[in-house]
Design a protein that fits this description.
The protein is mostly helical. Helices cover 46% and strands 0% of the residues.
């Protein structure tokens, strides 16, 4: 059983922007809502396309359709329309969640000093033992 994320009111806002609806030229999409739900599932889980649940349909068909819509800027059009109604009155970013890997800091790598530093360390350690 799939857990769908789009509510009916959300779907009604984006349904007119979809390609392949009845009345459009060419072949119509089988189920645009299920296709959008599949794309949202991929975006939400971060899973590879091959791991898409079979309830959404064949993963390759959904990927090809997603790629075609990306090439024709359909997603950009949908996001542009939806962003006009966005309410950014309260947007919070918690710095405890936003993290970078330690190697992402951009610092130069430490150079290895070589054999001389190693020899000096041995002398220092030996002098302490005396």
């Amino acid at each position: 059983m799939l857990r769908l994320k789009l509510r009916d009111d959300q779907w009604e806002r984006i349904a007119p922007l979809m390609r392949g609806k009845a009345g459009d030229r060419g072949r119509s999409g089988v189920d645009n809502r299920l296709f959008v739900e599949a794309v949202l599932w991929i975006a939400r889980t971060g899973s590879p396309w091959r791991d898409l649940p079979s309830e959404f349909g064949q993963w390759n068909s959904i990927y090809v359709r997603f790629a075609r819509w990306s090439d024709k800027d359909v997603w950009q059009t949908i996001l542009a329309v939806l962003s006009k109604d966005a309410d950014f009155e309260e947007v919070f970013i918690d710095s405890t969640v936003v993290r970078a890997h330690q190697h992402a800091a951009g610092a130069a790598k430490k150079k290895r000093a070589g054999a001389w530093a190693f020899a000096g360390r041995i002398q220092y350690q030996n002098s302490r033992l005396r």
